[in-house]
Amino acid sequence: MFQERKTAMTAKRLKQPNSRHCFVCGVENPVGLQLKIYQIEEGVIETTYTAPEHFQGYPGVLHGGIIATLLDEISGRAHMGDPSQPRFMYTGKLEVIYRRNVPIGQPLRIVGKKLENRGRAAQGWAGIYDEKGNLLAEGTTLLFDIPPHLLPLKDLEELGWKVYPD
């Protein structure tokens, strides 16, 4: 089921930009997750990830902090929108529900969705699924726009924020 869904969505997928050094998406971060994130429809994004052994908490189980990191990033990315005029947000609140152990060494599908949009604030949701489609963990976020003077959009390429080829 996981592989079928991935193939069916390929035609609609629009790759989101990555940065050079972000822990989650940084292409040059040797200790980061280096996720490639795709918009699959307006306000819905997804990525896949297979966690390595060095991110485990208990043997065979992904550490809860890494799970929260994945949910935080992907729920916020659902609000990013147009890559040429991205909406950068920071998390004011993250609520995580750990439903089942998230395994290391097995492919995971992580989906993010826009929820509410309230001016400079928004809510997002993300879920982590196993290959069989079981929801393993989910999180909701309260997000706030980063003030433009703190992250001028004209400097994004200098910062390494762009769509990198696969």
Automatic annotation (TrEMBL):
Thioesterase domain boundaries: 60-133
GO cellular component: cytoplasm; membrane
Record EC number: 3.1.2.2
Protein name per Swiss-Prot or TrEMBL: Acyl-coenzyme A thioesterase THEM4
InterPro entries assigned to the protein according to its UniProt record, in alphabetical order: HotDog_dom_sf, THEM4/THEM5_acyl-CoA_thioest, Thioestr_dom
Cell membrane as UniProt keyword: yes
A GO BP annotation: fatty acid metabolic process
Membrane association type: Peripheral membrane protein
Keywords: Apoptosis, Cell membrane, Cell projection, Cytoplasm, Fatty acid metabolism, Hydrolase, Lipid metabolism, Membrane, Transit peptide
Catalysed reactions, semicolon-separated: tetradecanoyl-CoA + H2O = tetradecanoate + CoA + H(+); (5Z,8Z,11Z,14Z)-eicosatetraenoyl-CoA + H2O = (5Z,8Z,11Z,14Z)-eicosatetraenoate + CoA + H(+); (9Z)-octadecenoyl-CoA + H2O = (9Z)-octadecenoate + CoA + H(+); hexadecanoyl-CoA + H2O = hexadecanoate + CoA + H(+)
Enzyme class, UniProt record, top EC level: hydrolase
Keyword Cell inner membrane attributed: no
Family annotation (SUPFAM superfamilies): Thioesterase/thiol ester dehydrase-isomerase
Species name: Anaerolinea thermophila (strain DSM 14523 / JCM 11388 / NBRC 100420 / UNI-1)
UniProt similarity note: Belongs to the THEM4/THEM5 thioesterase family.
Annotated GO MF terms: hydrolase activity
Subcellular location(s) per record: Cell projection, Ruffle membrane; Cytoplasm; Membrane
